[in-house]
Amino acid sequence: MATPEKQSGAAESDGVGRFHQLQRELSPRHRAAYRLTADIAIPPVTRGQLKALRSTRDDDEQMAIVLGEHAAAVEELFADRPVDEWFAFQRDLYAHLFGAGAAELPGGSEGS
Questions:
Q1: CA distances to 4, 44, 52, 53, 71 from 48, in Å
Q2: pTM for the full model?
Q3: Sign of CA dihedral 80, 31, 40, 48
Q4: Model confidence band, residue 93 (pLDDT cutoffs 50, 70, 90)
């Protein structure tokens, strides 16, 4: 008889199980990447990123986590722009990634 570890590994490899059912159910509703420019497309946030967000209360660190590999490019893009454009971008990005009103939830970042 297979061990539970082997059974779970088999389920993952052949697409059987609730884990894969959830992926199929949610697939049509997945949020698309946030297209900021032709070169910058910010993908949906992962579970790992959410865990990292909880590890800091610093707005800049949180934004860097969300932006991932695009953090430096986005910072450079907005560096010489008026701050209201930065805040508008943050609100729009968070609404796209987390749903409308996400930035206003309790515990949310003041700057985002």
A1: 25, 11, 6, 9, 17
A2: 0.70
A3: positive
A4: very high
Spatial distance between the Cα atoms of 64 and 86, rounded to a whole number of angstroms: 14
User: How far apart are alpha carbons 27 and 49 in whole angstroms?
Assistant: 19
Residue type, 2: A
Q: For residues 78 and 86, what is the distance between their CA atoms, to the nearest angstrom?
A: 6
H helices of the chain, where? Answer: 4-14, 18-26, 47-54, 59-67, 71-78, 83-98
Taking a C-beta distance cutoff of 8 angstroms, is the pair 77, 25 a contact?
A: no
